[in-house]
UniProtKB/TrEMBL annotation:
A zinc finger (dksA C4-type) spans 122-146. Keywords: Coiled coil, Metal-binding, Zinc, Zinc-finger. It holds the Pfam family zf-dskA_traR. The keyword Protein transport does not apply. The keyword S-adenosyl-L-methionine does not apply. InterPro entries: DnaK_N, Znf_DskA_TraR, Znf_DskA_TraR_CS. It comes from Myceligenerans pegani. The lineage of its organism: Bacteria, Bacillati, Actinomycetota, Actinomycetes, Micrococcales. It comes from the Bacteria. This is TraR/DksA family transcriptional regulator. Residues 37-71 form a coiled coil.
Length: 153
C-alpha cells in the first residue's frame, strides 16, 4: 500500500465527498475481505491520474491526427505507395485516438460509479464484481462470469 500525498487526498475529497461512507456499501464476493477506505482511495487516485493523463494524450493525438488529415495530400506525388502509406498512417492514428477515447470513457465511468456509491456491482447481474478483479482492472463493470458470457455471444 502506498501513502497518498496531501494533494491527492484533497483531490479525492473534492471528487468523492461521501467516499468514507460509500466504501462500506461496496460489495465483495464470498471469501473476500471488505473494502477499506485506503484501498478504494488508491484505486480512485489511480483512476483520477489516468483520466488526467489520457486527456492530455488524447489532446496531443487529436492534434496529430488533425495535422495528418490536413496535410494528407502534401508531397505524396502520384505514387500509389505514397498514398497507401499516408492512408495507413492516418488509419493507425485514428485507431489510436479511438482506443484512447474508449479508455477515457471507461475511466470516467469508473469514477462516476465510485462517486455514486455503485462501484463494484456488476452492471449485468447486479452481483459483486470482485475485489481482486477491480484491483487488477479498476475500470471493470462486469463480473468475470458476466464478461465471459458477453464474450461468448
Amino acid at each position: 500500500m502506498t501513502k497518498l500525498s496531501t494533494t491527492t487526498r484533497t483531490a479525492l475529497k473534492q471528487s468523492f465527498p461521501n467516499l468514507a461512507k460509500d466504501v462500506k456499501k461496496f460489495p465483495v464476493r464470498d471469501g473476500e475481505e471488505p473494502w477499506t477506505l485506503h484501498e478504494v482511495e488508491e484505486l480512485a487516485a489511480l483512476l483520477l491520474e489516468d483520466r488526467e493523463r489520457l486527456e492530455g494524450e488524447l489532446k496531443a493525438a487529436d492534434a496529430e491526427l488533425s495535422e495528418l488529415l490536413r496535410n494528407s495530400g502534401d508531397g505524396a506525388g502520384d505514387d500509389q505507395a505514397d498514398y497507401g502509406s499516408s492512408a495507413l498512417e492516418r488509419e493507425q492514428e485514428l485507431t489510436l485516438v479511438n482506443n484512447m477515447r474508449d479508455l477515457l470513457d471507461q475511466t470516467e465511468h469508473a469514477i462516476e460509479r465510485i462517486a455514486a456509491g455503485t462501484y463494484g456491482v456488476c452492471e449485468i447481474t447486479g452481483l459483486p464484481i470482485g475485489k481482486a478483479r477491480l484491483q487488477a482492472f479498476p475500470r471493470a463493470t462486469l463480473s468475470v462470469e458476466a464478461k465471459a458470457r458477453e464474450e461468448r455471444r
